[in-house]
Amino acid sequence: MLTSCTNAIILTVNGDEHMLVVEPNELLINVLRNELGLTGSKYGCGTGQCGACTVLIDGEPALACVTLAVACDGKEIVTIEGIARPDGGLHPIQEEFLGENAVQCGFCTPGMILMAGDLLKRNPHPTEPEIRHHIKGNICRCTGYNGIVRAIQHAAARMAEPAAADGPDLVKEAR
Q1: Which element (helix H / strand E) includes 77?
Q2: SS3 (DSSP) at 136
Q3: Which residues, other chains included, contact 114 with Cβ-Cβ below 8 Å and sequence gap of 6+?
Q4: Which 8-state DSSP code applies to residue 80?
Q5: What is the pTM of this model?
Q6: How far apart are CA 44 and CA 51, in angstroms?
């Protein structure tokens, strides 16, 4: 039963439509993790300062820990779980993060990868300073960022190749 304090919303998450009943103050991160079981996005600081909760909303990066679920009604959301290849394989950015040891504890990795995809959508051939600037809102306490920057550089080069077109199109648009 709906009360005046709840809202029915429709979210398209990773290509699947979900009708949910949420409280007016329910955060998107909690809906994704607790209601939909998508635990890739992390709840870090809770104030939008660390980037661990980054998702794409209508193709744009957003911080799910400071975004109300009701504000996403009718929108398309992509989480780290939604960028896999159609065959279930990893996205080239994910593969490069692994190959460059840009993943240690993994807490920041989903947000970093989604921000890398956003950067490569905007600039397919970024310089190192451009990469560092674009990911500055994503805090990593383990890697020192060098491996992350290299992974993004290698992903950019790899995704510029015609063979990369068979994967999901994280860099051109959200599914």
Answers
A1: strand 76-78
A2: coil
A3: 54, 55, 56, 61, 78, 80, 83, 170
A4: G
A5: 0.89
A6: 8
Contact 61, 51 (CB under 8 A): no
* Residue 37 and residue 52 in contact, taking contact as beta carbons nearer than 8 Å: no
Q: Does domain 7-82 match CATH 3.10.20.30?
A: yes
Give 19's strand partners. 10
User: Which residue in this structure is represented by tokens 């809906």?
Assistant: 31
CATH 1.10.150.120 for domain 84-161, yes or no, is: yes
pLDDT digits (tens, 9 = 90+) for 91-146: 999 999 999 999 989 899 999 999 999 999 999 999 999 999 999 999 998 888 99
Amino acid at 64: A
For the record, the structure tokens of 106 come out as 């993994």
CA distance 116 to 59: 13
